[in-house]
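Board notes (copied after class):
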Amino acid sequence: MDKPSQIFNCDESGFADKTDTSKVIAASPTKFPYKNQGPDGTGYNTSKNGWMEENIFFQWFKNMFIPLTATTPKPILLLLDGHTSHQSVRTVELAIEHNIIL
């Protein structure tokens, strides 16, 4: 692997949905009024507990990262932190299938 274009880094970003106010103006029963209204080309998800979960990471990897890198020369190196949500058997198997090193 001798090309920077084959090296990727990812990390989740958290956004607090709690504010100092006790009222939110949004159509009921929406808790996250902007969840489906992001800028074009963005992808995001939420979890009930606010933490990264294995299924959310797997869906991002399968439906976002793999299609994004489909034309990138292989192998690809994807740098991750050590969170357990990144370490499932199905994610590792899918990475191997697509010649992606985690």
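Comment from the instructor: The chain has two helices and three strands. Strands lie at 7-9, 76-79, 100-101.
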